[in-house]
Amino acid sequence: MPEKTVYIETVGCQMNVLDSELVIGALKRKGYVLTDAAADADVLLFNTCSVREHAEEKVYSALGRIAPHKKRNPGTVVGVIGCMAQKDQEKIRARAPYVDMVVGTGQLGQIPALIDAVKETRQPQYALSLGRSDGGRHEVEASFESYDPVRDAAMRPTPFQAFVRIQIGCDKFCTYCVVPSTRGPEQSRHPDHLVAEVRQLVDQGCKEVTLLGQTVNSYEYALGDGRRSRLSDLLARMHDTPGLERIKFVTNYPKDMTDDLLDAVHELPKVCKYLHVPVQSGCDEVLSRMKRNYTASFYMEMLARCREMVPGVAVSSDFIVGFCGETEESFQKSMDLVAKAKFKNSFIFKYSERPGTKAMDRFPDDISEDVKKRRNNDLLMVQNANSLVDHRAWIGRTVEVLVEGPSRHGHREAGPVKQLIGRTMTDHITVFDGHDRLVGQTVTLDVTDASAFTLYGTVRTGEQVGVTCAAEPAPREEGAKRIGLALV
Ligand code: 5AD
Ligand code: SF4
């Protein structure tokens, strides 16, 4: 029988990367072989993102590029899956009528059966969840299923790292954001299942897990009898997994950064001392229009609490510039916040108006593209100056790095000694020369140089293999003052 081949393009966040891995895993079990040549594929999948318009346009142009291939080979199955599929089934049909399959984030498990249905019936197949107001909470929740089948180590880009979805959906409804409609209501997965999933991943050779959730620190599972499992409990349970070396979690919501979680990050040696906590803006009026439910000073207090309770923690953030009604004065407040906050790094986005969001209904997108671009550059410049200071402070220190693979920019490809890349427990990207057998190992490096984005190091001789990254927690400052936390 000839091989069946599948091609996939993925845009967007780590959730999408995980979804693509799982979908391809399921198709491989059905006999499909993954190809990176779209022209050879029997099935072409586009796993999509709707967070910004640019990400959607990328998918429409990819669909345009494969149109001639589909015309020549009408038996090819073309599928649009993920966030855009959930949100825009009609638009996809209008702009690319040859698409055979539109599958939302909550129906990914049906893809193998839907492909068979397309092949048998030659009719387009749609599998989508309910909209947020198309039914009662339970009905809508049930229509979004977490897709987390048993996995195969060979499916992952690196066998020693894995994403683990601990929560789907989002209930925060920030006014600019499509995620609550594309990924549905917030639902946390059962801790027993998650602990078992991590154990299974570690049995397959995984050393580092990254727990995923849109607001991962809001994770909460009702166990019955009024008992609840929170992220701090989950971290403690996962921490006991023998062979697991590192646990990370992204993305955090500032108001849910509770003391029990920070205690867990501080006390559990395998938990990375790294927190990604998007602030989005430094201006209270903008934050209020965004419906972020906190002020800039609340955020700064939260940040101080993170640093006080987890000494040495690295914090990164996200900003949106040019949100509706952002004056020069309000933008300046983001500039002031980024200067003061001293994030390890920040991701800065130009506001992109999204149909279906509250911001689009309520506020005009009144900042010009040129102004958005300028504000983006200005904010990035301040952040980059701080990133350089942050990174250079590591020169002369010793770090433990989980080696991820050869550096993409490395030039010395021939021979076993390569420029390798890894990350520290604080998520600092580190580049160094080493034997390629170090990939997947934790190595000790002396940091010799740094740029705003990268540490450069040399391997400590005799220490490179099998070092675990578990370290004693750094001491907290004597008598450190606890800053009060307002819980949502
Ligand atoms: N426009 C620009 N950036 C956005 N983000 C979310 N929605 C939008 C939007 N409509 C950014 C936020 C979020 C990150 C993942 O994407 O900063 O934290
Ligand atoms: Fe979007 Fe806000 Fe939810 Fe993050 S917390 S996914 S920005 S709605």
Automatic annotation (TrEMBL):
Keywords carried by this UniProt record: 4Fe-4S, Cytoplasm, Iron, Iron-sulfur, Metal-binding, S-adenosyl-L-methionine, Transferase, tRNA processing
Cofactor: [4Fe-4S] cluster
Molecular functions per Gene Ontology: 4 iron, 4 sulfur cluster binding; metal ion binding; tRNA-2-methylthio-N(6)-dimethylallyladenosine(37) synthase activity
Binding site for [4Fe-4S] cluster 1: C13, C49, C83
Cofactor note: Binds 2 [4Fe-4S] clusters. One cluster is coordinated with 3 cysteines and an exchangeable S-adenosyl-L-methionine.
Any one GO CC term of the record: cytosol
Known EC number: 2.8.4.3
Domain MTTase N-terminal: 4-120
SUBUNIT field: Monomer.
Similarity annotation: Belongs to the methylthiotransferase family. MiaB subfamily.
Name listed for the protein in its UniProt record: tRNA-2-methylthio-N(6)-dimethylallyladenosine synthase
Species whose genome carries this gene: Fimbriiglobus ruber
Designated gene of the protein: miaB
